[in-house]
Amino acid sequence: MHGFARPMRMGSPSLLWIVPSMGWNEGALAALWAADALQGSGIRVAVQPLEVETGPPLLWPRAIERRPPLSQQPRNEWRTLYLNFDCIIVDQNFDTEFHYVKMARDLARTFLFARQPSLPERLDVSQYALFDGVLTASRASYQVLARQPSLLPSRLVPVPLLVGKTTGATVSWPFSQVDGPVVAMAGIVDAFQGIEIIVNALSVMAARHQPRSLLVLGDGPDAKRLKAYTRSLGVRAEFAPETLDWREWVAKADALVTLGFQPGLMGDVEVSALAGTPVLAPDIPSIRERADQLSTVWLEQPTVMGVIEQLEQSQWVRGTPKTPNGRIDEWITALRL
For position 206, what pLDDT does the model report? Predict the structure, then answer.
């Protein structure tokens, strides 16, 4: 609790979510999904980037309020901005530009959103104390952060990962029966996603007359290169950055594959749970937590041959889709909206 009185506001509850940029990054995607879900409960949500996006743009729905980059606004305008909101969430990747937070905490409840089981190393105990709490969207993150010497466990606020039904452009399902089973991947398309391993595995399987097709949901800095690489190996693949309703697409796939090279929110596995789609993934805590009720095949080695072995031998059984009941209420309680 802070020892000062914050301004009282009238009207509907309001939330400002500060993200690194409005492009394809995990922080922006989490904010987009949450904004879509929270606005459906009568909460006004605005998304504020720190910087201009430099990579592929994320297709934000018109219903979500988007603001110009904070770094391009004079500091004397920040106070006016913050005064319009009951609560402010700051993404953990704010490059330790702590002056953005110091003013906010005097004007509204302020939370740090921890997407990964680690936080910026340069933050000390006094800086954590400026937040009303640290939001953790997974048990795995909560357990790791609770052991951090610079962060009291009482400041951790667990919340469920919200995955909205937001849709981008309407795109028809691009596969047919002749394309074979469809393997889906979803997330930021970069070197950490491991798409090349999956493409290599599917190329080998095609040569063995065991065709599989690949669906890639998302976009990122390596999308163009990976599209060209996929074509060069003759793998049937579709890249679909224009759709944000991953649940609808993953529900049509035969399985979702994630290699977990960069543990974070694991939103792709959460989407699979909501769709009831089986998962092929390494056995790490952040994945096991979200795949708890799924038909899951654990990948012992995230290698080409390891993926081939499991895709050839596994019997994919669809599970019961997870129900998201009560998840928004948990956020409203955590943020005191």
Answer: 94
What stretches in the chain show pLDDT beneath 50?
1
How many other CB atoms sit within 10 Å of the CB of residue 155?
16
Domain that holds residue 280: 177-313
pLDDT on residue 1: 47
Together in a domain, 151 and 218? no
Sign of CA dihedral 188, 315, 289, 149: negative
pLDDT in tens, 212-259: 999 999 999 999 999 999 999 999 999 988 877 888 899 999 999 998
Q: In which region does residue 187 sit, left (phi positive, over 0), alpha (psi from -120 to 50) or beta (all else)?
A: left
pLDDT of residue 285: 84
CATH number at 207 reads: 3.40.50.2000
Structure tokens that stand for 87 in this block: 């609560």
101 and 71 belong to one structural domain: yes
Domains held by the chain: number: 2
Q: How far is CA 8 from CA 108, 198, 233, in A?
A: 9, 53, 60
- For residue 166, tell me if it sits in a domain: no
Burial pattern 15-53, b for ≥16 Cβ within 10 A else e, equals bbbbbbbbbbbbbbbbbbbbbbbbbeeebbbbbbbbbeb
**CB-facing half-sphere around the CA of 83: CA atoms within 13 A:** 6
Give the closest residue to 277 by CA, choosing from 182, 171, 175, 167.
182
CB 254 within 8 A of CB 233: no
What tokens does 175 get?
A: 């596969």
Query: 199 and 114 share a domain?
Result: no
As a whole number of angstroms, the distance between CA 221 and CA 223 comes to: 6
Nearest in space to 241 (alpha carbons), one of 75, 96, 97, 55: 55
Task: Give the separation between CA 214 and CA 151, rounded to whole angstroms.
Answer: 42
